[in-house]
Amino acid sequence: MELQPLTLAIADDHTLFRKGVIEILKNFEEITVISDAANGAELLEKIEGNLPDIIMLDLEMPDMDGIAVARYVLSKYRKVKILIVSMYGEEELVKKLLDEGVHGYLLKSADPEELREVLQLLRNGKTHYPVFSPNYFTQRTLR
Nearest CA to 12 among 75, 87, 80? Predict the structure, then answer.
């Protein structure tokens, strides 16, 4: 896969995790982190004049959680892709995120190369939902 340049904004209330991801992403020349924040409200203020290609959101944050930010961004900035990261991998939760229109979901236990691959998938207009059984999307289409 040819790596496409992309811009990224990150919101996660766990500072060590957020700053650690930013440091890891510095090793990937094609990824530019343009903003980071401790919660969704702060992130929305920071990106208002400089939209990223992708926003990576923690699911649970104070002030404005990942789902609330995703809803807002998806309604106002249709071209921005949303990646939710969380420690929780329950299929029902991920189905809810899919129904909300989120473009991807990744467990926080993923390795850096997997994050890179998922960001590239989203950048190229694809989605990523790793916890689903292979026939989920077929069943969903039939509804």
Answer: 87
Alpha carbons 105 and 89: distance in angstroms, whole number? 9
Cβ proximity of 120 and 3 under 8 Å: yes
Q: Count CB-CB contacts under 10 A for residue 47.
A: 20
Which tokens hold the place of 61?
């944050």
On whether the pTM is more than 0.85, the answer is yes
Report pLDDT digits (tens) over 60-87.
999 898 999 999 999 999 999 999 998 8
Per-residue tokens: 137: 């999307």
Q: 54-58 and 81-86: which strand pairing?
A: parallel
Closest residue by Cα to residue 115 from 34, 30, 42, 41: 30
